[in-house]
Design goal:
The complex is a heterodimer of chains A (203) and B (252). Chain A has 203 residues and is of the alpha/beta class. Chain A has six helices and 14 strands. The model of chain A has no long low-confidence stretch (mean pLDDT 95). In chain B, helix 1 runs parallel beside helix 2. The two termini of chain B are 14 Å apart. Classes of the chains: A alpha/beta (203), B alpha/beta (252).
Chain lengths: 203, 252
Amino acid sequence: MDIKMIDYGVGNLFSLRSSFAAVGVDIEATNDVDKIRNADKLVLPGVGAFRDAIAALRETGLDIVVCEEAAKGKPLMGVCLGMQLLFDKSFEYGEYDGLGLIPGEVRSIEEVVPAGLNIPHIGWNRLELCNESPLLKYIKDGDHVYFVHSYQAVTDDANVIARTEYGAPITAAVQCGNVCGCQFHPEKSGRVGLSILRAFCEM
Amino acid sequence: MITKRIIPCLDVRNGRVVKGVNFEGLRDVNSPVELGNFYSDNGADELVFYDITASAEGRRLFTEILTEVASTIFIPLTVGGGINTIDDFDRVLKCGADKVSVNSGAIRNPSLVREAAHKYGDQCVVLSVDISLIDGKYTVFAKGGRENTGIEAIDWIKQCVSLGAGEVVVNSIDTDGVKGGFDLPLVAAVCDAVNVPVIASGGAGNIQDFVTLFREVPDVSAGLAASIFHFGEVAIPDLKRELAACGVNVRL
């Protein structure tokens, strides 16, 4: 199994790499185009602001490589901000185009979360499964995962495979064909999170 | 909704956990890696590692051990102790910490909070405050609770949150070590003052103390403790089952 993590200078690669190692898969973080093209599967990490991350990805030219590989049907998983990058556009600090691999937009959870609740949404929250997905095959309704975010993907119900509730329904995980992603941090979500990474390896 | 968190805190000196722990089945009760794994497998929602080392050599050992902990434990890790500069943030984040806790370093230089929040995000910066009630005034203490700064605690916390602290650990010197329960009036006052998660620390002696905390101060996000977990007086799975039975939303 050859899984590569896209290294474009953004994201906590250490934790993702260690957690894949914990499910028995050594994933290398790389910006080498040949290695990315030869991989069986790709992981797109990301932390921080959308604007900076998409700029860094474009600067390296890896945005084009990722989109081309995804178009060939290669499984691709985005994590946290990496998941948000998969969408058409984001409204974080302005309006920025994303990779457009999944139709939809990234919007502040402030638009839906009632006043009085802390933003960012940080902590362990329950998953509510929606559409069936191989990514969540080991997950049952009510399993807890760890979230740290202020923005969420707004997309067609058909693309949402899990939600969580934070005063309002929040998109937790998405899948559109071979492209999938988690808003939460599977690498920080204990055994539940590791089982999601294992499922991705088996996709 | 997000769950209330239970957080064990481990003091580390020269790469070893101080105050041995009396769990059965651990080969090395002073190993941060083994203990971290034990807690991670037994219901802890997050771990705090506090480096109480003074020497450069001890600090190097701490970062080595932190890297090992972070590569085997898959829940959020907070690191504190000796955080005085942005380089200190950088050092522990590179080893796999998710959040960094500042205390005396922020008192010496409050702009450290802003600088770190800008660079790493608010969620990464945890303000830890040691507080005692002196002549009717909640007062901030520095240097591990040894030095009275004269600073009013609630104002200090508000100031740091406006600078970008994403979470506040409230450690009551008055209840710490007494095992008579958390300092509920202090924790409630901090929860009223800020809109970021507040973590109560100091005073937990038994399961009921946590039930009381979450019932009496519903806005508090987490309870932190050390010795009662380490000495096996409170097992986290039992604690969380009891909290759930009392209607507190926890991750079981």
